[in-house]
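INTERNAL AUDIT FORM
Audit reference: QA-55
Scope: verify that the stored structure record matches its stored sequence.
Auditor: D.O.
Record contents follow.
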Amino acid sequence: MKIGILDSGIGGLTVLRECLKQIPNHEYLYFADSKNAPYGIKSRAEVYELTENAVRYLLAEGAEIIVIACNTATSAAAQQLREKYDVPMIGMEPAVKPALKQAAGKRVLVTATELTLKEGKFLNLTRELDERSVIDLCPLGRLVRFAEAGEFSDEKVLPYLEERFQEFDLSLYRSVVLGCTHFPLFRSAFEKILPSDVTLIDSSGGTVNRMKDFITVTSENPSVRLFLSGVPLEEGERFDLMWSILKSE
């Protein structure tokens, strides 16, 4: 099958990487809208328009399943797009439920973009699940900018995380949710700052499991094609960066 995966940039590659591990025998079309990143600081209307543009592009390329591998785009656009297009459309949301289960009575810190943390869909989810008021929120939108710039050095990333985490007593937490697909790219930086007993949780595994419900056939010629805001990528600095992420563990 042809599976289209879209994100505001390179973050959704963490989902594609998991797909290639678990369900490799398919044709993957990956749409990175890096020219319009980050989505997390835009209005809901802007994010909807950009997401629909990406969906239309992937459908024109033959995608039979669409994965919105972006928490912000899912919050702003997924439900309306499901109603508009007759194709399986799988979204992302911060993995709050497994984080609460993992926390075993301690607190949970949810990190995501500013827009995701303000969206009604996310706020309703936390209200339903947070019976003991143990969930705290921390926007980390600048990590998206770092990732899109290919900046993963501790010199830049660690001071930012330390500054953003200053208001939290990290010893109170057992789970930290990486609620943006860009954030797992900084897993090593999180691990250097957080206590050793804190578990980092993202949604990529759960998303791939949901995809399996819609997959009916495999492809004789599995492949990966990359697109940068609607332009096919075959070489160049951005192509090399994206492939290095796909090949990483």
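Auditor finding: record pair retrieved intact. The CA atoms of residues 5 and 16 lie 7 Å apart.
Action required: none
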